[in-house]
Specification:
single chain, 489 residues, alpha+beta, 7-stranded antiparallel β-sheet, 6-stranded mixed β-sheet, 9 helices, 30 strands, 15% helix, 36% strand
Amino acid sequence: MTSALRQPAILLAVLLVPLSVLLYPTAGEAAGTDINMRRLGYPASTTREGPRTSLRVFYPLPRVEYREGSRLHWRIEPSPSLDPESSFLFRINGDAAAEHTAERLWDNPEVALPLPPRLLEGRYLEAAVEPNLFATDDLCRDLARGALSYRVSGRSRLSLSYRTPSPQTVDDFLHSLAGGLYVVLPDNPAPAEIAAGVWVYAFFQKRFAYFPVYLLYAREVETDRHAPRLWVTTGTECLPCEQTVDYGYALHGPQDLVLHGRTAEDLEMLVRQLANLPLFTAAAARNITFGRSGDLGTRREVLPLPGDLEGGGYQSVPLEIPIHPGLLETPPEDLSIRYEAAYTVAGERDRQARLDTYWNGRLLRSRLLSGSGRVADELFIPAETGVALRNSLRLVFEYPGEGGECRYTRRTNSARLLPGGTVDGHGSFPLKRLDMDSFGLFLGGRGSILLGDLNSMDLVKSAAELLYSFSRRYPEGGLPLPQGGASGR
């Protein structure tokens, strides 16, 4: 491993990004925003197959004062082969809210459910569709010809109506963001300010994917427009008012939060602390100063596997396990994975389930299970198989059919990944296999952002977008933490 790649650099050409304007009312006035499924990472459309295959979506809820007028919008398109009396039950936070037939949804696939403010008091809104589908009196034939299905449009959305917040603490500011955020840099930013601003932009785009985030210089701020602004600075020239902390976070009025450090090391530590939002909940104040010491990084020698994954189905039960080698201490060449899982024992003792193991879509192995209800395995993933920034280990428990060729059984099977699984890295990632995807493996170490012109906001925005694109392949809540700065002409 060369020292150059232990300190990766991103060199950017000019990418023109037009400045957008947030239309944000004054504090206390009525406001609204939409969170659609595509902003949450769902595809343009999702097709569900099976007589009772439900869909659950968890919408994040900003901490604001909600008004009457919020609505949950579904767009459901049932298969034309269904019986018209097939039904769809819609639930909100577990409670039944409406029920419609396939015939009604053929005529109008839009479903709008009113949301009184009392349903919006938690951190998330749980929206669910539970179908009861049938086409003929032959369920097996209906399944075989794909008749039992429905499509959910990615335009399905949560429409929120609220009063523009007037935060009183730093924590209020960070958790009441609903319509968008400006990240503001000084007019002539230092390299450390650019690096911090790029990381803050990527963090908020990833953590709050349902609203827009923009980068701009202080001179571009429209002071007469009410919009949340987060200022990143080591000096005083871009501050919205007189500075009140030498190091830390300071809230100025309802719309300006200042992240201020005297040195590059200060800013690096502050943005690392920003990744740990519960810190701000515990320190409910307008001005917050945390200690400068402590390693808030996420890189480890061994990664634990999630111990709460469960799956269910009839004859096929998949478990999808994300693997993120970029969180290991050193970008690895090979991986070894140890896991244990529990599964439903097949109904016939002489016809047990089969376990198929896939790595990034490629079949690694297939084995018959013993029928004990537990399986443990150790997998070795060599460099030739491929180690990327985000990988998928897929365990598929295949159960024998019951009743001839019918692919449907009323017996539900399940599987669960047990706690204690680990991922170990071996060797160092080979330079000859470095590409845009594997480059992200190195972003958790020290590095630099190389810009052709430190005063070009187009280049700064490009760097921010590139870091965001890498961060999307890190686990939820994970982001390459900054260790280094920016440099250029």
